[in-house]
Every structure is written in C-alpha cells, then in structure tokens.
Amino acid sequence: MANSIRRIMIAEVPTLAIDLVEFHENSSVLNDEYIAHRLGLIPLRYQAVDSLKGGNDIQGAFLPMRECVCYERCPRCSVEFELEVNYDKENAKRPEGERDMPITITSKDLKSNNECVSPAHFLNEEEADEAHDEGISIVKIGPGQCLKLKAVARMGVAKEHAKWSPVAVATYRFWPVITINEELCATLTLEQKQELVDCCPDRILELDEVTGKLIEAENAWELATYTEDLRVTQNTMKKRPEDDDFISCVQSKDKFIFQVETTGAIDADEILMASLRVLKDRLNYLAQEVE
Hints:
Layout: H1 2-11, E1 15-26, H2 32-40, E2 44-46, H3 58-61, E3 78-86, H4 87-91, E4 103-106, E5 111-112, E6 117-119, H5 125-130, E7 137-141, E8 146-156, E9 167-180, H6 182-185, H7 190-199, E10 205-207, E11 214-216, H8 220-223, H9 229-235, E12 247-262, H10 268-290
Helix pairs in contact: 1-10
C-alpha cells in the first residue's frame, strides 16, 4: 500500500504544465525545440484566490484536454502564457554598469491569462534569496536578439510525460519499533550498557546519566537504519544464545515515514491527499468491476 501511494505521487497526481508553444520570434542562441522543452519543465502552481494552499482542488478548476468539449482550447482546459523580451528595449532600462551584460529570460517573464496560475519560480523564500536570477532561467539574449512566444498549459499526469510530475523525490521507509527489555537490561553493567550504545552506528540509544538505564534517543525514528551491529554485540552478552534480546529494533508493518520533495507546483501535504483520492477512486472502480 505504501509503495502504491508513492507511485501515485510520482505518476498519477494531476498538475499543470506547458504542452504547446507557438513561437513568433526567436533570435536567441537556442532553437525553438530546446526552449519549448525548457518551458515544459517549468512547474506551474495553481492557487485559488481564497486559498493559501498550492494545487488545492486543481481537478475542480480544470478539465483534461481530452474531456473538454471545446473546439481547440478554452479557460476550462488550458491556461495561456505570453512572453516577449527584446534585448534592446530592456537594456535601455538597466543601470549603466549592466548594459554590456546579457539579459537572462526567466519564468518571471511569463505572463498568465489566469490570475490563479503562475510559474513556481522558487521552492521557498530562502532559495529566492540565494538565487542570482528572478526565476527559473530559460535563455540568455544579447544585443539585437528577441524572444516572443505564446505557451499553452494543460492538465495532465506524469504517466503521460514527466513534466506533469509534482514531485522531484518521493521515498518512504518503515517506522522503527524499538523495544528495550528493562528486566534483562538491569542485569547488565554500566560498561556493557555503554557498549550497546556505542555499537550502534545510527545512535538510536542513549544512557541516562541519572538512572543508568538505556533509553531510546529522541530522534531515533529518523536515525534507525536496522544495522546488525546491535544484534551481534548483544549476542556476545547473552548467557545462552536462545535468550531474549536486551534491545530489539524492527520495522513496523503498518507505519511509514514518507519524504516528499515537491517541484513547487503543489504543496507536499496536498500531493499526499491527492494521491489518496486517486487510490480511493481506483479501488472503488475495481470493486465495481468485480461486482
């Protein structure tokens, strides 16, 4: 089930992405196809006027192109962007010391016809502060060069093309269940307890300085890697091989830790909720077909 959610996050959560580019003028160093490919990979963020969440209810706001009844495109199934940057015109507005430098065209230059849809220029404010450009770089132009185009964004899923994937990274791992047998640990010396603490490369155990008891580290759930070092070390301390372990660290069967890094198009928690909705729809469909 956890892997199903991960795969849905990657490939089946719908997002917006530029799918069609009409070039009116391109005298930059990159050809049309190269720029169109770059535009397609710019994450687009839908945010309703009355919402603080990115990507909230994108399926309610847009229809897939194949399901829309319009002739070519309409606001219900697409969003149009316009971009026009002329070096000579823009260079005249720059400070005197920057006029010999090329101009970088970024995602900030894309003008949307839908106030709720805009490029996700940066993931967060920290990234924006560290960036040298105002957005995602598309191409640089010099004297006499110009780029003018119209781009059309549509809703889709990454199963069709990777540009619609809302995540850059989506992984999960099992939640660690750490059990400390207090009765058996009481038979160990402080040196043996310290040896158990030190033998764990992931440092999931600590020795309480006041009580002298072994305790679970505060962030053990994040550190646990299920190495064999702890098992091997405590086996040498047992009186008989068949005795219970002093400490056990096993993987939970029903609890997982997900790590999701978004492209900026949708917030991480919204991606999780959307993937659960997709999974629920799939299971309902399967149940109907079986009946």
